[in-house]
Amino acid sequence: MTTIALRPALLPLAGRTTRRVTTPDRPDDEKALVLSAQRGELEAFSELVRRHQRRAYAVARAIVTTHEDAEDAVQDAFLHAYRALHRFLPDQAFGAWLHRIVANASLDITRRRKVRDADDLPETIASPFRDPAESDELRMRLRAALERLPERQRAVIVLHDVEGFKHSEIGQLLGIPEGTARSDLHYARSALRRLLEQLRSPQ
Asked: Which CATH architecture has domain 1-120?
């Protein structure tokens, strides 16, 4: 994934700051970054954006159906996180907190998209499925099958089987019990196999 182009509203968070901050280089210094950001040091929040935007995009892309919607969800989530940063407890995991915001933003976009254009089939799907070795026909079947899955099942199967999230992490992201995430994954895999078989069979 390429670096997300920030909207004008986010540009101040990406580098314009009235204070100078020394950015920690190690992941275990993230708490220091969060504390600096909470004191108003925008470059610290900019570093948090840079560290987390790829995984945030992956979370969004597992839930929404287009690249553009995923970018919108990530942008909305980072703005929300910045505005809510004063409520974040630095002893918590910033990534888990942020990814939950991303998931909520993505689900909101998906719901609005369904209202606007429920029948719109995306031209692309999550990048891990874009395998040059696969035939165009197989990619089309996979894309169509994923699109037919219920919203939460599609999110669970992509988050687990493609992005490598654990059941407990998926439960936290989507606001569901870990057991529900497990059962959703089971049903999603079964449904995806059936759909692929149906799409392969002559009509």
From this structure: Orthogonal Bundle (1.10)
Is residue 88 helix, strand or coil? coil
Q: Break the chain into its structural domains and give their ranges.
A: 1-120, 129-203
Query: Going by CATH, does the domain composed of 129-203 fall within 1.10.10.10?
Result: yes
CA separation for the pair 1, 46 (Å, rounded): 18
Q: Which amino acid is at 120?
A: D
DSSP string for residues in 148-195:
HS-HHHHHHHHHHHTT---HHHHHHHHTS-HHHHHHHHHHHHHHHHHH
Q: How far apart are CA 3 and CA 25, in angstroms?
A: 19
Query: Residue-wise pLDDT tens for the chain (203 aa)?
Result: 434 445 544 544 443 333 333 444 454 589 999 999 999 999 999 999 999 999 999 999 888 878 899 999 999 999 999 999 999 998 888 998 999 999 989 988 887 776 554 444 444 444 444 444 445 666 677 777 888 888 888 889 888 887 888 999 899 888 889 999 999 999 999 988 888 887 665 54
Q: Which of 139, 181, 133, 180 is nearest to 161 (CA)?
A: 181
Token duo for residue 152: 């939460």
Q: Do the beta carbons of residue 146 and residue 192 sit within 8 Å?
A: yes
